[in-house]
């Protein structure tokens, strides 16, 4: 097909010897050149490597977007006696973050007050935290969840582990930047101040974001050496050389580590996750397990965490909200697929079964479909 077009384009000038190229001939040549250029650029992108992870969102920009109309509808919903939560949910869970920002801007112009303050006054409980979460970008939301997990006296280790151990290197780099912008403090200093021992060392190593970029070349020798080092530092010896585990798991690329854990089985009688359970305990154990699960299949990790949180007594709404809000514009569509595959019920059905009221409606809307 392309060959034919090229032949035609080359033949064209013969037809119009003393004339300018006819417009159709000119267009043909232009198209051929454009096709060649785009093919060339395509190859460039392919061989460049290190490109951003593709996204699989459930929440995408709405077409025919009218921020002023949305803002006016929200203002009416807030002023309605008893608050019309459904309208607020329908609008804010079906717009992208950029669009929600435009709505907030228009809202302030129309209502002469800040949308976030207005939402705080109108909503409460889990629905309020979900909606306020949506008013932040994914990165701002992750940064503020981290901040909240370390605020005050105690530390919410569960949240800290979930975010630091599940985010990609690229995501962590962004989170660190935004964290500093928002709170005027370095994330690693806050983490160091709030944790201790090997647990602190592992989190700090991850926050330092020293992980290698995936490489096109598979280094079999290094895969073998890393697998043996992990075994010799743990299952093979009395006690555990945690520093070795930390350095390998915080610095190697994810595709490399996947091959390392596979190779690991030829040295150790237990796979990597069983070895972690045998060697370390508490928050350190949970952190290493989260890391390995995310290296293997990050979306499956989130799917399992959503399932556990919803099935636990008194549904852990904080965990459910955090995952739904932080992943809806990243990879929730893939999480839905993994959820259905693993649990034989869809995420949508599970939300419908384990949550209720306006909060449930908001979650179902973020989920954006049954599987
Ligand atoms: Ca050991």
From TrEMBL:
Its main location: secreted. The chain crosses the membrane at residues 20-42. This is Annexin. GO terms for molecular function: calcium ion binding; calcium-dependent phospholipid binding; cytoskeletal protein binding; phosphatidylserine binding; phospholipase inhibitor activity. InterPro entries: Annexin, Annexin_repeat, Annexin_repeat_CS, Annexin_sf, ANX2. PROSITE patterns: ANNEXIN_1 (PS00223), ANNEXIN_2 (PS51897), PROKAR_LIPOPROTEIN (PS51257). Keywords: Annexin, Basement membrane, Calcium, Calcium/phospholipid-binding, Extracellular matrix, Membrane, Phosphoprotein, Repeat, Secreted, Transmembrane, Transmembrane helix. Coiled coil: none annotated. PANTHER family: ANNEXIN, ANNEXIN A2-RELATED. Gene3D superfamilies: Annexin (1.10.220.10). It is found in: Secreted, Extracellular space, Extracellular matrix, Basement membrane.
């Amino acid at each position: 097909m392309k060959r034919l077009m090229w032949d035609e384009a080359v033949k064209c000038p013969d037809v119009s010897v003393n004339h300018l190229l006819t417009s159709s001939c000119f267009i043909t040549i232009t198209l051929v050149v454009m096709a060649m250029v785009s093919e060339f650029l395509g190859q460039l992108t392919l061989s460049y490597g290190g490109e951003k992870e593709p996204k699989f969102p459930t929440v995408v920009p709405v077409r025919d977007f009218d921020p002023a109309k949305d803002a006016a509808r929200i203002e009416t919903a807030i002023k309605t006696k008893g608050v019309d939560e459904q309208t607020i949910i329908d609008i804010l869970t079906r717009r992208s973050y950029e669009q929600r920002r435009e709505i907030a801007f228009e809202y302030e112009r129309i209502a002469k007050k800040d949308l976030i303050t207005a939402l705080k006054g109108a909503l409460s409980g889990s629905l309020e935290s979900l909606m306020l979460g949506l008013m932040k970008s994914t990165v701002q939301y992750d940064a503020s969840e981290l901040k909240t997990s370390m605020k005050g006296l105690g530390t919410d280790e569960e949240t800290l582990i979930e975010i630091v151990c599940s985010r990609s290197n690229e995501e962590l780099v962004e989170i660190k930047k935004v964290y500093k912008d928002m709170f005027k403090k370095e994330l690693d200093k806050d983490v160091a101040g709030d944790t201790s021992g090997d647990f602190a060392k592992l989190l700090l190593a991850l926050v330092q974001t020293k992980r290698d970029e995936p490489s096109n070349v598979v280094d079999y020798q290094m895969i073998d050496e890393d697998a043996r080092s992990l075994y010799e530092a743990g299952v093979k010896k009395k006690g555990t050389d945690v520093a070795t585990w930390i350095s390998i798991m915080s610095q190697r690329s994810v595709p490399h580590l996947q091959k390392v854990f596979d190779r690991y089985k030829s040295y150790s009688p237990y796979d990597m996750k069983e070895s972690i359970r045998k060697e370390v305990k508490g928050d350190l154990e949970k952190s290493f397990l989260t890391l390995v699960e995310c290296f293997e299949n990050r979306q499956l990790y989130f799917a399992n965490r959503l399932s556990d949180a919803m099935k636990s007594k008194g549904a852990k709404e904080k965990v459910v909200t955090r995952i739904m809000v932080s992943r809806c514009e990243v990879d929730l569509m893939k999480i839905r697929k993994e959820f259905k595959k693993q649990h034989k019920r869809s995420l949508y059905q599970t939300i419908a079964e384990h949550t209720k009221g306006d909060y449930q409606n908001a979650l179902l809307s973020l989920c954006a479909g049954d599987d």
